[in-house]
């Protein structure tokens, strides 16, 4: 099967782009669960060497999207509705706690940076620049929970952030706009020091995204 639509025309940050393109193709069911991903075919389709494809498949294995099997190579792992529900529910609970505990310890510089990130995300929305929005969104979420002193909470959240959660703005129609409106509300609560309300808003923000992602995959199927 021809995969010419996968071809990459911009070689900057090559590995990240290969990972992103393959991740999106898997989540959009362009590759079916159980399908074998052949490095040579993917490299040719993308117009890259085998090395970034090989590294990308290793990264996708860490994210749970492929399984690397001896003598078979990479096999697409099914992403189920239960997987999405589990990841987003756990994130919503733990991140809400982390943010509530973090807010009293955020500095004025942290708050200024959060304001700057919200502005940069606003510009990304206007330009329809999903990659920039994704990068700034990840920075925003990490910074907003920075002040939480629970290191295990940070470790678990980083694990839950691996894979598709950061990339939903590039996959769900209207997600950047909805998320940005919620980010602005979060910023107002940070500036007012309302940790309880901030915790509730971020919990709903994550759960809403999870539900939207489940609906999106169901439509693709």
TrEMBL record:
The keyword Transcription regulation applies. Residues 12-79 form the HTH gntR-type domain. GO terms for molecular function: DNA-binding transcription factor activity; sequence-specific DNA binding. Gene3D superfamilies: GntR ligand-binding domain-like, Winged helix-like DNA-binding domain superfamily/Winged helix DNA-binding domain. InterPro entries: AsnC-type_HTH_dom (IPR000485), GntR_C (IPR011711), TF_FadR/GntR_C (IPR008920), Tscrpt_reg_HTH_GntR (IPR000524), WH-like_DNA-bd_sf (IPR036388), WH_DNA-bd_sf (IPR036390). Keywords: DNA-binding, Transcription, Transcription regulation. This is HTH gntR-type domain-containing protein. It comes from Brevibacillus aydinogluensis.
């Amino acid at each position: 099967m021809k995969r010419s639509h996968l071809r990459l025309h911009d070689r900057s940050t090559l590995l990240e782009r290969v990972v992103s393109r393959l991740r999106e193709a898997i989540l959009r069911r362009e590759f079916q669960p159980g399908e074998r991903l052949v490095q040579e075919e993917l490299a040719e389709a993308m117009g890259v060497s085998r090395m970034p494809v090989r590294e990308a498949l290793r990264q996708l294995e860490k994210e749970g999207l492929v399984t690397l099997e001896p003598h078979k190579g990479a096999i697409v792992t099914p992403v189920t509705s239960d997987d999405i529900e589990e990841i987003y529910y756990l994130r919503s609970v733990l991140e809400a706690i982390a943010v509530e505990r973090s807010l009293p310890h955020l500095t004025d510089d942290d708050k200024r940076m959060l304001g700057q990130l919200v502005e940069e995300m606003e510009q990304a929305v206007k330009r329809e620049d999903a990659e920039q929005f994704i990068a700034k969104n990840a920075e925003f979420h990490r910074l907003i929970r920075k002040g939480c002193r629970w290191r295990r909470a940070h470790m678990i959240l980083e694990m839950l952030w691996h894979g598709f959660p950061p990339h939903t703005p590039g996959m769900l129609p209207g997600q950047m706009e909805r998320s940005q409106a919620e980010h602005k509300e979060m910023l107002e609560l940070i500036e007012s020091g309302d940790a309880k309300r901030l915790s509730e808003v971020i919990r709903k923000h994550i759960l809403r995204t999870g539900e939207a992602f489940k609906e999106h995959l169901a439509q693709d199927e």
